[in-house]
């Protein structure tokens, strides 16, 4: 079950990052163009890496915001 939870979390970072990347058309097209120019496995893995990186950064920002709001409200973690 631990492996499934890790795989599911990674998939959510990939999907969320992909949504954010494609939500900014210029960035999304740049990533797609780069992946096509690179081609093959490296293009695919590079595109996935960008999506995962964006997802991780966005997740870290949201987590920091949630923690900050919790501290401001006086909740102990």
N→C terminal distance: 25 Å
**Largest sheet features:** none
Rg, Å, rounded = 16 Å
How many distinct folded domains? 1
* Percentage of residues in strands: under 5%
User: What is the β-strand count?
Assistant: 0
Question: Number of helical runs?
Answer: 3
Helix and strand sequence? HHH
Structural class: mainly alpha
Q: Taking all residues together, what is the mean pLDDT?
A: 93
Helix content: over 70%
Q: Label the overall shape.
A: flat
Q: What are the segments in which pLDDT stays under 50 over at least 5 consecutive residues?
A: none
Structural write-up:
The protein is mainly alpha-helical and 77 residues long. The chain contains 3 helices and no strands. It has helices at residues 2-23, 25-38, 40-72. The chain is flat. The two termini are 25 Å apart.
Using brief descriptors, characterize the structure shown:
77 residues
Write a concise synopsis of the structure shown.
With 77 residues, this protein is an all-alpha fold.
